[in-house]
């Protein structure tokens, strides 16, 4: 029964990762294409794309937010580690569960606050002055990504075997 | 009482191994509940507002360009050119390593990407060329740190965003200190490895290396030339760099396929996913602190303790060296730059000069245990013990401290290119 539950959770995590990766690749493609097209057009014709800055900013925010899920899946969130050795050896067994549970709670609180912000923006009817897009749609990535992260860390707390190994890295990318 | 509660909360969360984003979110919520009028939604709303700075677009694009070069063929070809050109120089391989790190740094803006890209090629070559393991590892770890001071540099972008300093000016100011550190590493290599004589110049090898590597060699010319000529902003230069890297790796060199590209993009996104939420929370806290006039209060408090600019330079550098041992450079800049920069300015330090000094200082943190990122990367990549690598980088840490002292007390080195 425990194995079946863990399999269900693993499948869920994999599908979520595919969804996040697909959206993320799309956001990255938009970011590169739009930003480069603006520079190229301005260099060639003398005038760039008026809307490229705003689209680029939103694409960047989407890809950064969706990156939270990838960072959770691959254990690469930034974490100061200098207090790691201050924990008694006997507590090491339950600490990962507490760590993941707290992270899940933290991301959930942020997701709820973000959802409230999106709802408020929608109610106010704010829109981007250049693109004429409703801003709440652009903001949706925040509750979505934070909610995904909360879900993932809850599963890691429930099934610690699904936790990714934490990477020994901080802000950059060792892929040794 | 409120401050004590905040400190206790931070330590409790760190003790429970919480991620930095959760710790900062807790701090932000605590601050908004206690001094921010209970408007907790501002934690997200302020972060959202701050993320709409278009310069932040440069970060994923530079990261992508660097990852593409490291995964593809450009890094290897750049190193080949440097090796061919420095062949007759005594300690030529060591000099080639320094130059490769410098040139690669001018493209990627990242230290561990530089270490991996240059190190995986040069480490075996250095050992085969008669250099000791200790010297080779130390040189590679130290040389790779140039990636964050020679522009374009992601930590400098973060400093600019957090303090409102011009990123173009920071990029200009990074050139002098970057060249100084590069010069120090090269001079040390020559002084200690002079006995390793070079061989004659091989004209054919130079021609082949240049022909095959010309596309890679054009990359720093495009990035830095574009920024310094005023043709591109830092953000536009990042877009051009990533498209150029994509074009060269996919079409010209064809060392990267679509599957590899997808993996590189996801890897870059993972890094962004680690960095940006932290940035968002830090910016949100910063906005509240500025609203509450905390930086002014800190300046007022510290002014009575600090005896002039020299005292401030010494105290802030000592603090940053300790912080660099415990924290990565991105987190340290996000947390400390908004607090220290106003104090620096009140002591008469130029914000650009302080940003460069802070970055050079935290650069040393890449080489200091227990959190030195380059030590950890080198340990994994080159399969050496942590203790051995720590000993190997010691002379290079001293060398970089000399560089830091020069940068700290000679503002002209950083500011000579700024109008």
Structure notes:
The complex is a heterodimer of chains A (176) and B (419). Chain A has 176 residues and is an all-alpha fold. Chain A has 5 helices and no strands. In chain A, helix 1 (2-45) runs antiparallel to helix 5. With 419 residues, chain B is mainly alpha-helical. In chain B, 78% of the residues lie in helices and 0% in strands. Chain B has helices spanning 2-15, 20-34, 42-50, 58-71, 74-85, 92-108, 111-128, 133-144, 154-163, 167-193, 203-228, 234-252, 258-291, 294-303, 308-326, 329-346, 351-364, 373-382, 386-409, 411-415. The longest helix of chain B has 34 residues, at 258-291. The radius of gyration of chain B is 22 Å and the shape is globular. The N and C termini of chain B lie far apart (47 Å). The chains are: A mainly alpha (176), B mainly alpha (419).
Task: Please sum up the structure shown.
Chain A is mainly α and 176 residues long.
Number of helices of chain B: 20
Largest sheet of chain B: none
Count of individual beta strands of chain A: 0
Oligomer: heterodimer
The overall average pLDDT of chain B, rounded, is 87
Spatial extent as radius of gyration of chain A: 20 Å
Q: Which percent range fits the helix content of chain A?
A: 55-70%
- Label the overall shape of chain A: elongated
Strand content of chain B: under 5%
By secondary-structure content and strand pairing, the structural class of chain A works out as: mainly alpha
Binned, the helix content of chain B reads over 70%
The string of secondary-structure elements of chain A, in order, is HHHHH
Could you name the key traits of this structure?
heterodimer; A: 176 residues; mainly alpha; 5 helices; 68% helix; B: 419 residues; globular
């Amino acid at each position: 029964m425990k194995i079946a539950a863990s399999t269900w959770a693993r499948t869920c995590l994999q599908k979520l990762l595919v969804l996040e990766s697909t959206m993320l690749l799309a956001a990255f493609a938009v970011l590169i294409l739009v930003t480069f097209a603006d520079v190229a057009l301005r260099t060639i014709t003398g005038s760039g794309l008026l809307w490229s800055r705003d689209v680029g900013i939103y694409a960047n925010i989407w890809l950064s937010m969706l990156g939270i899920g990838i960072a959770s899946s691959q254990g690469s969130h930034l974490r100061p580690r200098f207090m790691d050795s201050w924990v008694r050896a006997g507590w090491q067994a339950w600490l990962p569960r507490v760590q993941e549970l707290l992270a899940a709670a933290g991301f959930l609180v942020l997701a709820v606050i973000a959802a409230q912000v999106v709802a408020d923006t929608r109610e106010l009817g704010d829109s981007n002055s250049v693109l004429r897009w409703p801003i709440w749609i652009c903001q949706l990535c925040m509750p979505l990504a934070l909610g995904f992260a909360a879900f993932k860390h809850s599963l890691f707390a429930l099934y610690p075997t699904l936790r990714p190994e934490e990477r020994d890295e901080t802000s950059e990318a060792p892929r040794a | 009482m409120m401050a004590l509660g905040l400190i206790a909360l931070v330590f409790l969360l760190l003790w429970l191994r919480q991620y930095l984003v959760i710790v900062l979110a807790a701090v932000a919520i605590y601050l908004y509940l206690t001094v921010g009028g209970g408007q907790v939604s501002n934690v997200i709303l302020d972060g959202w507002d701050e993320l709409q700075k278009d310069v932040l677009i440069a970060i994923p694009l530079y990261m992508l360009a660097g990852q593409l070069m490291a995964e593809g063929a450009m890094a290897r070809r750049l190193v080949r050119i440097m090796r061919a050109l420095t062949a007759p120089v005594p300690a030529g391989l060591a000099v080639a390593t320094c130059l490769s790190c410098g040139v690669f740094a001018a493209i990627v803006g990242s230290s561990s990407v530089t270490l991996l890209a240059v190190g995986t090629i040069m480490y075996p070559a250095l050992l085969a060329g008669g250099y000791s393991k200790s010297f080779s590892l130390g040189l590679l770890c130290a040389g790779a740190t140039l990636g964050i001071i020679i522009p374009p540099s992601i930590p400098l972008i973060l400093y600019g965003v957090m303090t409102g300093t011009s990123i173009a000016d920071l990029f200009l100011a990074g050139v002098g200190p970057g060249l100084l550190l590069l010069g120090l590493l090269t001079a040390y290599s020559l002084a200690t490895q002079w006995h390793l004589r070079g061989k004659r110049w091989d004209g054919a090898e130079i021609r082949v290396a240049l022909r095959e590597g010309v596309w890679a060699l054009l990359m720093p010319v495009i990035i830095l030339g574009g920024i310094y000529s005023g043709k591109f902003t830092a953000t536009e230069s990042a877009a051009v760099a990533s498209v150029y890297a994509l074009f060269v790796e996919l079409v010209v060199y064809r060392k990267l396929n679509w599957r590899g590209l997808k993996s590189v993009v996801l890897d870059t996104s993972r890094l962004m996913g680690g960095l940006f939420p932290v940035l968002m929370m830090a910016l949100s806290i910063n906005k509240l602190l500025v609203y509450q006039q905390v930086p002014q209060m800190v300046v007022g408090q510290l002014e009575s303790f600090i005896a002039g600019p020299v005292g401030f330079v010494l105290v802030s550098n000592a603090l940053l060296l300790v912080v660099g041992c415990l924290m990565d450079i991105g987190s340290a800049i996000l947390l400390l730059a908004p607090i220290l920069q106003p104090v620096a300015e009140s002591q008469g330090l130029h914000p650009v000069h302080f940003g460069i000094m802070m970055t050079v200082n935290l650069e040393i943190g890449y080489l200091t245990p227990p959190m030195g990122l380059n030590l950890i990367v080198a340990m994994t990549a080159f399969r050496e013990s942590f203790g051995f690598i720590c000993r190997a980088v010691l002379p290079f840490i001293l060398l970089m401290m000399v560089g830091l002292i020069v940068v700290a007390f000679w503002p002209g080195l950083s500011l000579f290119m700024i109008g």
